[in-house]
Amino acid sequence: MSFFVQTSVRLRSLVSRVRDAMEAHPGRLAAGVGGVLLLSSVSAFALVEYGPQPPLPAPSVVRQEVSIDLAPQVDALESQPRLLYTTAFVARTDSIGSLLRRLQVTDPRQLRALSHERMLAELLRHRGAMVSAEVDSLGMLHRLEAPLPGETVDRSEAAQPQLQWRLLRIDARAGGSFDTEVRVQQARVQTRVASGVVHSTLFSAADAAGMPDSVASQLVGLFGGEVDFRRDLRPGDHFTVAWRVYTAGNRVLREGRILAARMTVAGHHYSAVWFDPPGHAQDAAYYAPDGSSLSRAFLLSPLPYDRLTSGYGWRISPIFHKPEFHKGIDLAIPVGTPVRTIADGRVVYAGWGTGYGKYVKVEHPGGYATIYSHLSKFEVHVGEQVKQGEVVALSGNTGWSTGPHLYFQFFVHGKPVNPLHIAHYTPKGTHLPTGLRPDFLASTAPRTRLLALLPPAGEQLASAASSH
Q1: pLDDT mean across residues, the chain
Q2: Nearest residue to 409 via CA among 464, 336, 330
Q3: In sequence order, what are the residues at sequence separation of 6 or more whose Cβ sits closer than 8 angstroms to the Cβ of residue 264?
Q4: Are 420 and 316 within one domain?
Q5: 291, 374, 444, 461: most buried by Cβ count inside 10 Å?
Q6: Range of 451's domain?
Q7: Any residues with CB less than 8 A from the CB of 324 and at least 6 apart, and which?
Q8: Is the pLDDT at 465 greater than 60, yes or no?
């Protein structure tokens, strides 16, 4: 059979089977036809969505020339005086005029008017005070503000004394006059903490730690009955101190007292906290954290720091070059250093003595006395009662002296004894009354914890060294 005959027979057989199937299953045939049509519509939709798009019309741009003349506005701005903010510090040689000129005030009429301002004259007594001003580019003063001297402590709240200060404000008015106002302001009370390690002197360590000299001097007085800062202090000794500071804005008005301190000297640890119980002023003092008193009858030195140049006992006189018994000690110190009495007492002499030059003698209860010689200036008078740590004079170089120093003597019942042995004669103060102990712990515990938050500088250095 030929190829074409065979193909024809097969096609007729296939068509016969398809016809039989359509007659046997009409529902399946309809579904198949519908599915084919559905797929065709989806394909057609896809072609319409993603197929070629007609071109968009060309954008139209509208151009319009605008002419703005800025010259009048610039001229108007230039004609207005610009406001400047200036500051200056009151100097010892300042007059009202010189202070205002340093603040860029140059208008002659204002300078004449302000030269007679009483409050500005008072401001000149506040040496070092920062004065701020608003001055325009024509040299006209608009406003001046400055703190006036004479802060006062308000103790109406027993829990914490408040420092009040006065703010001077001068505002210029139209016509050339001024409004002057003095406002009483309440200073903010803050607590500051510093930690330092001694490399050479306590005061250089305090400077490096950002602690003011006035606070360092308090630290010396605080532990002066326990530590001889001339002989005991060594490199590596360290301290941590929390103290009160009174501020106004960004200015420090006054450094307050030490609130808590700890110090390590030659491996020995010393701690102190201030306690001022309301209604018990007689018990206000520094105590150890356990409540024991730190008060001592005598400080170990009348100076915050010094250098021993001649001790107690026999020596060759630097003046007469022959043996003599030196009945005190010589402490080298610059002229003008404050000299403080080591204990409460009464001034029995303040004048000139042969060899001594200017000197002060103070008698203390219990048969004790001290003499401070070669002074440059007296700060007390005969008969005056003085408290421990009070400045009685300024050091100098008067009398038989080969250089600026303090000759310090200590007497027990009229007999001179070695001032380096004062610690043998100084009993401790009384302990905290039992009834005040709960208040003491509640008041001082936060300060003690505050010191604990800042590790001693010596420990910081040790840990840093061990990590390398």
Answers
A1: 81
A2: 330
A3: 237, 238, 239, 270, 456, 458
A4: yes
A5: 374
A6: 188-295+431-468
A7: 314, 315, 316, 317
A8: no
Same domain, 398 and 458: no
Task: Give the domain-ending residue among 161, 186, 211.
Answer: 186
The total number of structural domains that make up the chain = 3
How many Cα atoms are found within 13 Å in the side-chain-facing hemisphere of 126? Answer: 23
Q: Which of 167, 186, 205 is the last residue of a domain?
A: 186
Written as one letter, the residue type at 463 is S
Q: Which helix (H) or strand (E) element contains residue 38? A: helix 26-50
Whichever domain contains 391, its CATH number is 2.70.70.10
pLDDT at 114 (0 to 100): 94
**Based on the domain organization, do 277 and 207 belong to the same domain?**
yes
> What's the angle, vertex CA 360, arms to CA 357 and CA 365, rounded to 5?
150
CA distance 238 to 209: 11
CA dist 423 and 421 (Å) reads: 5
* pLDDT on residue 229: 78
Structure token digits, residue 38: 């559905």
* Structure-token pair, residue 36: 């084919």
Positive or negative CA dihedral for 19, 21, 27, 33? negative
In a domain, 336, yes or no: yes
At residue 217, what is the residue type?
S
Q: For residue range 171-230, list pLDDT tens digits in order.
A: 999 888 999 999 888 888 888 999 999 998 888 899 999 999 888 888 887 887 778 777
